[in-house]
Design goal:
Radius of gyration: 14 Å
Number of strands: 5
Strand content: 15-25%
Largest sheet: 5 strands, mixed
CATH superfamily of the domain at 42-104: VC0802-like
CATH topology of the domain at 42-104: VC0802-like
CATH class of the domain at 42-104: Alpha Beta
Distance between the termini: 30 Å
CATH architecture of the domain at 42-104: 2-Layer Sandwich
Order of helices and strands: EEHEEHE
């Protein structure tokens, strides 16, 4: 990825998913609520290598687990709410730019 650093958008309640209603999980189904979303500002060319790795590595070093969702034109990183501040700090220290949403 060279020196290019993607910037992301942190949305307190789901980024571009902000209009989704909370899902009701049926009784007996295991779930883990409380995720926060980082939207990577794209689009990136499909030939761009290392975008997700450049984001995942500082989170792993900070012991922050992530769930990644990739689409055609961008990526989303979900982190547990209780690790949000650690994720923001780790990504910022790695040189990534974070834009907070107005909804926060």
């Amino acid at each position: 990825m060279g020196n290019a650093r993607p910037s992301f958008h942190h949305a307190h309640r789901g980024g571009t998913f902000h209009r989704q209603r909370a899902l009701r999980v049926p009784v007996g189904v295991q779930s883990q609520p409380g995720w926060r979303v980082f939207k990577v500002h794209g689009p990136f060319a499909l030939s761009e290598i290392g975008v997700l790795s450049a984001l995942a590595e500082p989170l792993a070093e900070a012991k922050v687990s992530l769930f990644a969702i990739s689409s055609f034109d961008t990526d989303y990183l979900l982190v547990a709410a209780e690790t949000l501040l650690a994720a923001i700090n780790a990504l910022g220290q790695a040189g990534h730019t974070i834009h907070r949403s107005v909804a926060e």
